[in-house]
Each structure stands twice: as structure tokens, then as C-alpha cells.
Amino acid sequence: MERGSAAEAPVPTTPQHILDARQFARPWLEETLFPTTRTLQQTPLSALPQALRGKRLFYLFYEPSTRTRVSFETAAMLLGGQVVGIDSDEQRARDERLEDRIQVLNQFPYEFILLRYHEEGGARRAAAVSRVPIINAGDGTGQHPTQALLDAYTIWQELGRLDGLQIALVGDLSYERTTNSLAYLLGRFRDLTLYLVSPDLLRMRDEVRDYLVASGVDVHEVPDLREVASGLDVVYMTRAHTERLEHARRYDRGRRSYAVDAELLAELPRHAIVLHPLPRGRELPADLDADPRIACFRQAGNGLYLRMALLSLLAQGAPEA
Amino acid sequence: MERGSAAEAPVPTTPQHILDARQFARPWLEETLFPTTRTLQQTPLSALPQALRGKRLFYLFYEPSTRTRVSFETAAMLLGGQVVGIDSDEQRARDERLEDRIQVLNQFPYEFILLRYHEEGGARRAAAVSRVPIINAGDGTGQHPTQALLDAYTIWQELGRLDGLQIALVGDLSYERTTNSLAYLLGRFRDLTLYLVSPDLLRMRDEVRDYLVASGVDVHEVPDLREVASGLDVVYMTRAHTERLEHARRYDRGRRSYAVDAELLAELPRHAIVLHPLPRGRELPADLDADPRIACFRQAGNGLYLRMALLSLLAQGAPEA
Amino acid sequence: MERGSAAEAPVPTTPQHILDARQFARPWLEETLFPTTRTLQQTPLSALPQALRGKRLFYLFYEPSTRTRVSFETAAMLLGGQVVGIDSDEQRARDERLEDRIQVLNQFPYEFILLRYHEEGGARRAAAVSRVPIINAGDGTGQHPTQALLDAYTIWQELGRLDGLQIALVGDLSYERTTNSLAYLLGRFRDLTLYLVSPDLLRMRDEVRDYLVASGVDVHEVPDLREVASGLDVVYMTRAHTERLEHARRYDRGRRSYAVDAELLAELPRHAIVLHPLPRGRELPADLDADPRIACFRQAGNGLYLRMALLSLLAQGAPEA
After folding, report:
1. Which domain holds residue A58?
2. Contact in structure between A144 and A185 (CB atoms under 8 Å)
3. A91 touching B, CB under 8 A?
4. CB contact set of C247 (below 8 Å; sequence gap of 6+)
5. What ranges in chain C are assigned the alpha helix state H?
6. Which residues of A187-220 are buried (b: 16+ CB within 10 A; e: fewer)?
7. Are residue B91 and residue B131 in the same domain, yes or no?
8. Tens-of-pLDDT digits for all 321 residues of chain B?
9. CA nearest A127: which of A24, A27, A16?
10. Where do runs of H (alpha helix) occur along A160-295?
């Protein structure tokens, strides 16, 4: 899917595959996916619709992804579905063309394939040969669209809207697929101001920033989160203690901070929220967790219900078993 | 089980353990296992007999085996059974006598044990102490009988019979347990011509070839697949890019080919099929997949239904839970 | 929980978390847990109470633990529950604070968390933040309380009582969490004589021995199991071929034995039992298994039913889903 075509011709119905954060139409998010997620979240467990009864999800992981796997596996289970899969450790033992793996799965009665691949473009390659929906659970430094969906849902759920917000993305904005994917998704919304706070070596890639600008987002690169904190609605943190970020900070001579601390929280508006895809490091110290604006665990919980909603909606569109 | 006794006294009913491709009687294959497999394959998923309801399969893997594990796990699940197991990675952490593992499982309510072991004879050792059926999912360079069964079923399903065929086995015929096991199973059928196409260093082991000759199979070693292609019904390929085969080819000065290409397909009869246990390498290029004679994915799909049939039949013979 | 307070104020009802072998009150063991286990063991599989229907167990393993995982997973499954988890291999890929993992799980509908942690105190840290019961499946060289429970149940089941017995603990009594945990549990019973048979470098830790003495257990360190064999009711063996024990034996100049052999069995009373948490090495040779006093496989089987009982009892006390 070309970026342009996605922007110009949004699909109003549930897409066949979940590959790229740019593929989702705004009405589908606001009128279908997010309300479905909220409804599921408010439903007692014992009353959940068994939308996946008699359906099966297969996960195929070329890289470890405990968080995403557990979230989808639990989601499928709560909807009455069954889950089987192949972990990254097993993948290493014998390599096999991705397309061959998918063609074998085409012969097996699975209704969904959840794929994590180690290289950008893996999900799209899989979708080209799969007879059932491919859900991209991360492809290298590419995208992680269901993370972007749960991040956007969390903002919508906590603040009531996505339009007109001031959002800071903080940390490694170049290689982190979570911020790339979220940025693409935010391009769907209006009157957004996006502050990019990253070391010089880890600036957001031109292609993502250009997409945001073309989508009408007001994008600013700022050297320090503190400069803009008092006006923010959302702070989106990423892991600060990766090797990549440590190296980039040495290059910047460590003068800037990519962390949340008590001082920053004091600046931040009372209604604002701090998100983090987890696992976190020292950039979001646990001793601040009592502050209700630290929303990262609510965000992780939302991931379960967002994925339940997604599977339910895909199941409605999927061919009969 | 001695080879001789197996050949002379075929068991007409479902065996207790699945250990060795030589143990299956021809009437059981043609009148029970293969028709049961075909019936399951033609049954809508929602109407599958829940032959494993209230039954449990345990997989115990000392070597990785994603393909076989996924196939059996899906088969058990579709028949209403439950699956728990131990992967090869977990095995490495602490070693324990195989017999002890089985004796502990004897105390647990599992109705089937699927075993992959790293040394020849593991399945037989396990069967000697197990109170429930052991299914050999590969033991070192020994056998992989359920792979042989699905290979033979694929030939029966695609060509309507196994008698009177001309079959080429190609590649590493010494260490590959798939070709060893299939060769043993083919010994049950009549008027077969078997062409063995392998490097000198990886010729079929004497014990297997002697068994075939004693069973009345017309066995020929040929240096090049092309020589015999025009008369073949089945080409059975194996992985050509293992270290072992690369070494053996250098020894042969690389003059021979163990691969399928367009030229070879042009020689092959229109009704012939090309099988491969997967994963494949360059010996079966993906750009030939559009040719309907390339049957390796149908073969992998058959594995699911063959294993469902096998579990169903074993369940009928298994003691009550 | 302080040791003193645990000893003085036993909890008569099922505890909220399973953390430490010292936390169990004797009446709860003898009037609730052990009889429930025995009843489950005598119930036909098809009539087992589905006490975990609609409930889910999550296992979170920072170290491998196939034995304990399989036992709990089977137990939950037989009671109608569902199991999802994260293995130690996946943990290594990305580290994350234990407390964060638990806080994410707090957002997911799991009714039990089974935790194996690589450092002493992990289970207690998890319990401090978890909204559902934490079951300690071993924390470093700390405890393994459900192993102690199944060991004690096995003695109760095989010999009819725990009071007044003569028990030998053999091998590495310093770092093995099984013997530490069992020793703590035995402190609840009366008129016990405990013989500790270990190399000088691997003597039982002072804190454990002091606890036993304060609990009224008659504790003796003996250099050789043979000295006391004729009066024993229970021999509890541990792995003798760990690196630690081999080193400690060289220090002792290898004069002592920590193994069972035919000579020792000849000394042992006819009613006595030999236990071992498995996996075993040469300290309990397989060629003695025909002796009915070797009870290690019955012991492993008891583990399944003990854990079913424990989950059932915890489920009764757990908050409604």
C-alpha cells in the first residue's frame, strides 16, 4: 500500500490484514475499533462474546515478543479461541523461507496468523501469500501497528479525544518501531502538535516526519522535554537505556535528558498522561508510579482489550472455517 | 522388533506404539489408516469427530521439531484433545534419563507421548517403560515413521496407488531419517522401482537397501536424476544444502545435481509429483511452485490429517482414562 | 512474614499466597490440604471437580522449571482451567523489573501467578504488588514450598503420619531449596528425629537448623547414612552429581557416600521409603527401582494431585473473576 493512496482512500471497514499503522481510516478507529474495545473492557469476563469459538490463531515469531504474544494469546483465549505457535528460539534452529512457512499454514485450519519478523517488510511478504489475515506484531525496525492502536486507544480513553492535543515523543525516535507506528497513526488526527525529543543521532526518520507534516501535524524538534512540559497532554516515553541511546547521548555529551523525574511531573498539567510501551528503564522511575498520570500499566491492560476487539472484528470479516 | 519378524508377521490392527516404519501391515495402511485420513480431510472442521475429547497428548522433545509438533498439536486440538509438553530448549537445562521422564509421565494422565529423541533407539527405549502409546517423532538418524506415513499417504492420495510406481529418492540418503523411513514403508508394496540418487558419500545404508531388495523392490543407484526423469511417477527430494551434502558434493567434484529445475520438470511426466519434507533449499526453487506437480505443501497439509487419523485410531485402542 | 510469628500464629484457612514452607498451619495440612489431595487422587478423571473452570493461571519463569511447570499446567487443565506463561528463555531476551511484570499481569484476568525467580525473595516481592495469589515455584537458593508440600504429603500418604518419624536428609543440604523447604515444613510436626547427612562444605544452614531445634525436632548430623539406616522411616535423597557436591566431596576426600545402594537397602526397614525430588543421578541407581520402597515416581505423581488440591483451595479463596 502506497502512503499516498492510504491517506487519500481510507478503508471504512475492517481491513483484511493488519500491517501498517497508516492503513486505518479515522472513522473505523473512532466508530468501530475504539468503542468495541471500550465495550469489551466494560463487559464482565463471564459475559464476553465468544467471537473466536471454533477459531484458531497461530503465532509465528522470528524474534522474541513475550508482551505481544501474551496479550494476543490471552485475548484469543478469552474470546473462546485456541492458540498454537512457534517461538523465536525454535525458529533459529532451522531457517525456512517466510513464504514457505505461510504456505504450509495455508494448509492448516488457522483463521489468524500473528507474525513477528526480524526484518522490515516481513508482514507484507506474508500477507502476499496468506489465505487468512496476517497481523503484524513487529517487523524489524519497521512497524508495530497493534501497539500504535493500543497507544492511540489509551489516549482516546484517558483524554476523550485525539484531535487538538500536544504530544511529546521522547527517546530513540529512529529505530523504535513503537514511536514510528504511533506517529503514522497520529497523522489521521487534526490540530495536533507533536514535539520530538531525541538525541541528534536518533532523530525521527525523514520519511515519518514528512508524512506527519503532509498530514497537517505541527511538528517541532525540541532539545529538552522540560521546555514544553507545561503545555503537554501526552508524554510518550521509550526505553532510554538501550546501547543505541547510550551511544547517542555520549555523542550529545549527555547534556540532555530523556527521562521523567519529579521536577518534570511538577511542570506537567494535572490532566496529562505519561505513556510507555514497556519494558521501562530508569527513564521512568518506579518511585513515581503513585502519580496517577503515569498510565503505562493501564496502557498495557488496554492492549489486551484492543487486541480482543481487533480479533473480533477480523473474525467477522474472515472467511468461514 | 526384528526386521524379519516385522516382514513376516504384519499386525492387522492399530499398533500400540508408533516406532518404526517397518511395523505397519499393508492392509492396515490401505484399509484403515489411509481411508480414515481421507475421510477426515473431507469432513468440515465443525463436524470433525471429537475422538480425543478428555484425552491428552504430551510432547517430549530432546531436539527441536516445530513442524512435527505443530502438526500433532493442531491434530489433537481439532479432535478435542489437549496438549502439554517440554521443548528441546528446556531439556538442555537439566538432563534426565529418558526412562525416568517416561516413568514420571506414567503417573500423569496423558494418553499419548510424542517423543523426539537425539539418538537412534530412543523411541523403543521409551516404549519399553511407558504405559501409554509412544509416537516416535524422530530419533537421531534413525526413523521418523509418521513422516513416512504422510509421504506414502500423499502418493496414494495423489496417484491412487503405491504398487507399480517408479520413485526417485534424491539427496542425502544416508543420514536423512525421512528417506530411510519412507524406504522401509515402501518395502510393503509391489512392483516398485526405486532410483537412488545421492553423492557417493551419502549412499543409502546397506541395511536399508538390503531390506528393500529382500522385500522385492527393484533398486537402482543412478548418478543423475535426469537419466530417469521421463519415466518417474514420484520424485522425493531432501535438503541439498546441509553441510553434509555440500561436503559430499565437493568429494564428487560437484558434477552431479540433486536439484529440480525447469529442464527436469520438462522431462517429468505430466502425472508425476515432486515431494519434499521441508524445509527446502535451492534444490526445489520457489519459482517453480506454480507447477501443479510440486506437491510439497499439499504433502505438509496431509500431515495434519494423517496425524489426526493416527491419534483417532490409537485412541480407540488406548486403555480407558 | 517473620519466622516467629508464623510459628506462633498459624493460619487455619488457606493462605492468600504460597511463599514459604513455614507459613502452613498443621491443622490446614492435615485436615484440609492432604485429605483434599487424597480425594482428588481417588476420583476418576472424568469426575474431577472443575474448580478452575473460567479461571486462568499464568506462569512467569526466570529460570527453567519443566517439572513444576508441567505439574501445575496439568493440574490446572484437569480442573478445567487455562494456562498461559512466559518461559525462562524468553525472559533472558529482555529484562524487566519483576514488579513491573506483576503490575502488567494485574491488568490481565489471571487468577493465579506461578513464579520461579532466580533470586531468594522474588516470590515475596511479587506478592507485595500482586492482586492475585502468587505461588512460589522456587526462588534461587530460597524455597520451593509446593515441593515441600508434596514431599510431606507423600510421607503422610505412604506412612500414615508425620509425627514420631526418623528421617534422613542426604546430600547438598545448604543450597538445595527442596531440603530447606521440607525441613521448615517438618518443623510443624512432633517427636521427629532428623539425620542430616552432608559433606562438611554443604551442611544445612544455621538458620534452618536453628528453626528445627526451636521447633522441637531432634536434629543430628551424621557422617554416614549407613550408621542410622536400620532405624529410618524416610530417606530423602538429593542430586549428588552437581558440581557443588563433587567439589565438597573432594574436600572431604571422598570418604563418605551420599548414595543409596543394595547394601543400604538391606539395612533399611521394610516399611521405610526412599524419596527423591528428581532428576536423579547415580545416587539412586535405576537398577534398584524394583524395590517398592523406592517411592520417587509415586512422589512425582503425588505432585500433580497436591497441586490440584492447592489450586482448588486457592480458587475458593480467590476474588471472583
Report:
1. 6-143+301-317
2. no
3. yes
4. C201
5. 3-8, 26-27, 34-42, 66-78, 88-93, 98-105, 122-129, 145-159, 177-186, 206-214, 225-228, 243-251, 262-267, 296-317
6. bbbeebbbbbbbbeebbbeeebbebbeebebebe
7. yes
8. 334 444 444 445 778 999 999 999 999 999 999 999 999 999 999 999 999 999 999 999 998 888 899 999 999 999 999 999 998 766 654 578 999 999 999 999 999 999 999 999 999 999 999 999 999 999 988 899 999 999 999 999 999 999 999 999 999 998 888 999 999 999 999 999 999 999 988 999 999 999 999 999 999 999 899 999 999 999 999 987 677 777 777 777 666 778 999 999 999 999 999 999 999 988 999 999 999 999 999 999 999 999 999 999 999 974 433
9. A16
10. 177-186, 206-214, 225-228, 243-251, 262-267
Q: Which residue, chain included where needed, has cell 525472559?
A: C91
End-to-end CA distance of chain A: 27
The chains in contact with chain B, meaning 3 or more Cβ pairs closer than 8 Å, are A, C
> Are C134 and C157 members of one domain?
no
| Domain at A202, CATH number | 3.40.50.1370
Please indicate, yes or no, whether the overall pTM of this predicted structure exceeds 0.90: yes
Whole-number pLDDT of residue B321: 34
The answer on C158 and C70 residing in a single domain is no
CA of A61: which chain C residue's CA is closest? C90
Residue range C95-119: mean pLDDT, rounded: 94
Alpha helices (H) in chain A, listed in sequence order: 3-8, 26-27, 34-42, 66-78, 88-93, 98-105, 122-129, 145-159, 177-186, 206-214, 225-228, 243-251, 262-267, 296-317
A158 domain residue, yes or no: yes
Q: Are residues A154 and A128 in the same domain?
A: no
pLDDT of residue A4: 40
Number of other residues whose CB lies within 10 A of the CB of residue A281: 18
* A166-175, B291-300, C276-285: which is most confident: B291-300
CB spacing of C77 vs B84 below 8 angstroms: yes
B13 to chain A, any CB pair closer than 8 A? The answer is no
Mean pLDDT of A166-182: 93
Q: Is the Cβ of B78 closer than 8 Å to some Cβ of chain A?
A: yes
Q: Are residues B156 and B63 in the same domain?
A: no
Q: Which positions in chain C touch A88 (Cβ < 8 Å)? A: 93
- Does the CB of B96 have a partner CB in chain C at under 8 Å? yes
**B96/C278 CB distance under 8 A:** yes
B59, B60, B100, best to mutate vs chain C, most C CBs in 10 Å: B100
Asked if the structure places residue A79 within a domain, the reply is: yes
Q: Do the Cβ atoms of A91 and B286 come within 8 Å?
A: no
Judgement on whether residues C204 and C58 belong to the same structural domain of the protein = no
Residue B90 forms contact with C (CB below 8 Å): yes
Output the pLDDT for position B103.
97
The total of structural domains in chain C comes to 2
Q: Which of A10-19, A306-315, B110-119 has the lowest mean pLDDT?
A: A10-19
Please tell me the distance in Å from B28's CA to the nearest CA on chain A.
26
CB contacts < 8 A, B to C, total 58
* A301 interfacial to chain C (CB closer than 8 Å): yes
Q: Measured between beta carbons, which residues in chain A are less than 8 angstroms from residue B298?
A: 107
Task: Kindly state whether C86 is in contact with chain B, defined as any CB-CB distance less than 8 angstroms.
Answer: no
Shared domain check, C290 and C280:
yes
Of A297-311, C7-21, C272-286, the one with minimum mean pLDDT is C7-21
Residue C254 Cα, gap to closest chain A Cα (Å): 41
Q: Is C1 within a domain? A: no
Chain B's closest residue to A57, CA to CA, is B74
The answer to whether A128 faces chain B, any CB pair under 8 Å, is: no
In a domain, C63, yes or no: yes
pLDDT at A241: 67
Residue A106 pLDDT more than 60? yes
Q: Note whether B275 and B182 are same-domain residues.
A: yes
